[in-house]
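Below is a filled-in request sheet from our internal design queue. Each sheet records the structural input a requester submitted and the sequence that came back. We keep these sheets so that new team members can see what a complete request looks like end to end.

REQUESTER: design group, bay 2
PRIORITY: normal
MODE: inverse folding
CHAIN LENGTH: 213
BACKBONE (tokenized):
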């Protein structure tokens, strides 16, 4: 009888410790992935953004080695989004792209997600890993639409932000130029920037409607 009782107690002890260890491990695990933040690290599961936009690359890293491929991918993604809202397509502006390249080189050493002081509209994207693409950046900017209300012209609930999305669909913006830069230290990641002209995101204005002149 004593042996049987000891065996039962032992089983309960083992079960309790297994459950406790499991709960402890779960509490130390990172939180589940969530939607894209306003700016910052995209550590959650990465979707196939190029496929989402229906864009086919000539090779997986074509945009890294060929400026024409990079332009085509950025334009395709932007104009896919704009077509969803029946907006005129953006045109590529090499002056804007040149500005984006020069500004990202200023961030080459620190890889900080800091906006420039230019009078252009500007979307920026940072990723810790080096696999992010033009389609990825535009996709996560586009997904901010989830929180934007065209009725109230607000991004809700706080502290959600939607300025990347509203800039992409800003009707009065006609040109875009973008750049992608791996930072000096691969461990600090990479940056993507797109510049828009004319700039958008004026307070209390509907991005889909021509601004009053």
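RETURNED SEQUENCE:
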């Amino acid at each position: 009888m004593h042996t049987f009782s000891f065996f039962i107690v032992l089983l309960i002890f083992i079960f309790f410790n297994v459950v406790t260890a499991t709960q402890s491990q779960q509490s130390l695990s990172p939180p589940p992935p969530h939607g894209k933040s306003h700016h910052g690290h995209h550590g959650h599961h990465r979707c196939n953004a190029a496929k989402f936009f229906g864009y086919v690359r000539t090779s997986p890293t074509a945009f890294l080695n060929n400026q024409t491929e990079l332009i085509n991918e950025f334009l395709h993604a932007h104009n896919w989004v704009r077509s969803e809202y029946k907006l005129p397509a953006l045109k590529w502006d090499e002056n804007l792209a040149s500005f984006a390249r020069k500004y990202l080189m200023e961030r080459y050493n620190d890889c900080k997600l800091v906006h420039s002081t230019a009078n252009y509209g500007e979307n920026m994207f940072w990723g810790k890993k080096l696999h992010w693409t033009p389609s990825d950046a535009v996709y996560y900017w586009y997904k901010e639409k989830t929180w934007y209300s065209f009725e109230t012209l607000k991004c809700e609930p706080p502290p959600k932000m939607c300025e990347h999305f509203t800039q992409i669909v800003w009707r009065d913006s006609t040109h875009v130029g973008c750049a992608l830069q791996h930072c000096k230290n691969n461990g600090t990641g990479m940056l993507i920037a797109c510049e828009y002209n004319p700039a958008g995101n004026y307070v209390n204005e509907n991005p889909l409607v021509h601004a009053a002149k």
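SHEET NOTES:
- The mean pLDDT is 83.
- Residues 173 and 198 are 5 Å apart (CA to CA).
FILED BY: M.R.
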